[in-house]
């Protein structure tokens, strides 16, 4: 499957082999730049230049590392003429494109960043003990602000959900959401005996309750569920 952008973009790009093994292919114009997560470059034309940089200084780079990303980001430039760049995330799954237009920011779960325009700033936001620790997810979220393109990825396919009013999403399936949405982490069914019983025996636990108007993106599969499924089949040493 090939994804072709239908919305505003400063780049000529396609997303190939989605949603199972998506790869981002960017055709850079002469002297055009793109910022890519470290280690995600799969192939490129020989005249495309790569530089590793700590964007935002040491403080922001260390915070980005706490958010599940690398301290260093790679900057690719097509020198003097156009060049092609292939970008592949580390986990098999999907890639989603989003264009920031200054009106809204975008929150992305840790380790979800793939690439962005040079004018997009990546900040790392502390979720707080309640939202991070009790959800079982990362304490940190990446926040993309500014104007330009950004791409993010997930394990499994990515589904877009338009939210008007309220919506509930399992914490393990959240990939990204617009900052126009407010959210609280809670146990599905509440802290009552019935709610705790649902969490323990029904397989559903911590969820995010979103409120407002905006878009959220979820992944169609959850990596921890796969690991739990494979765990009984691990080779073990005999005593």
Q: At the fourth CATH level, what is the homologous superfamily?
A: Mitochondrial biogenesis AIM24
Beta-strand portion reads over 45%
Write down the CATH class: Alpha Beta
Q: Overall 3D geometry?
A: globular
Query: What is the straight-line distance between the termini?
Result: 48 Å
Category by helix and strand content: mainly beta
Helix content: 10-25%
The CATH architecture name reads 4-Layer Sandwich
Element string (H = helix, E = strand): EEEEEEHEEEEEEHEEEEHEH
Extended strand count: 17
Count every helix, treating DSSP H or I runs of 4 or more residues as helices: 4
What oligomeric state do these chains adopt? single chain
The radius of gyration is 19 Å
Question: Runs with pLDDT <50, length 5+?
Answer: 129-136, 199-203
What would the average pLDDT be, to the nearest integer?
Answer: 83
**CATH level 3 topology:** Double-stranded beta-helix
Using brief descriptors, characterize the structure shown.
239 residues; mainly beta; 5-stranded antiparallel sheet; 49% strand
What is this entry, summarized?
The protein has 239 residues and is mainly β.
Describe the protein.
The chain is mostly beta strands and 239 residues long. The chain has a single domain, classed as Mitochondrial biogenesis AIM24 (Double-stranded beta-helix), CATH 3.60.160. It is built from 4 helices and 17 strands. The protein has helices spanning 57-66, 129-132, 193-201, 223-230, and strands spanning 2-3, 12-16, 23-28, 33-37, 41-44, 48-53, 73-78, 83-87, 93-101, 106-109, 113-116, 120-126, 140-155, 158-170, 174-178, 181-187, 206-219. The strands form 2 sheets. Strands 4, 6, 7, 9, 10, 11, 12, 13, 14, 15, 16 and 17 form a 12-stranded antiparallel beta sheet that branches. It starts with a strand and ends in a 9-residue tail after the last helix. The model is unreliable at 129-136 and 199-203 (pLDDT under 50).
């Amino acid at each position: 499957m090939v994804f072709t952008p239908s919305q505003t973009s400063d780049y000529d790009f396609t997303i190939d082999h989605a949603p199972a093994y998506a790869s981002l292919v960017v055709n850079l114009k002469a002297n055009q730049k793109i910022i890519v997560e470290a280690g995600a470059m799969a192939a490129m034309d020989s005249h495309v230049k790569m530089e590793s940089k700590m964007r935002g200084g040491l403080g922001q780079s260390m915070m980005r590392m706490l958010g599940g990303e690398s301290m260093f980001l790679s900057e690719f430039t097509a020198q003097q003429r156009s060049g092609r760049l292939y970008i592949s995330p580390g986990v098999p799954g999907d890639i989603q494109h989003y264009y920031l237009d200054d009106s809204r920011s975008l929150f992305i779960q840790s380790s979800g960043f793939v690439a962005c325009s040079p004018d997009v700033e990546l900040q790392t936001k502390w979720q707080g003990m309640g939202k991070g620790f009790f959800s079982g997810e990362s304490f940190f979220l990446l926040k993309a602000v500014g104007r330009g393109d950004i791409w993010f990825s997930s394990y499994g396919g990515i589904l877009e959900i338009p939210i008007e009013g309220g919506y509930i999403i399992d914490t393990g399936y959240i990939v990204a959401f617009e900052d126009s949405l407010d959210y609280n982490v809670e146990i599905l069914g509440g802290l009552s005996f019935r709610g705790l019983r649902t969490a323990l025996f029904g397989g559903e636990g911590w969820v995010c309750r979103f409120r407002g108007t905006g878009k959220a993106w979820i992944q169609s599969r959850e990596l921890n569920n796969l690991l739990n499924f494979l765990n009984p089949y691990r080779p073990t040493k005999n005593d």
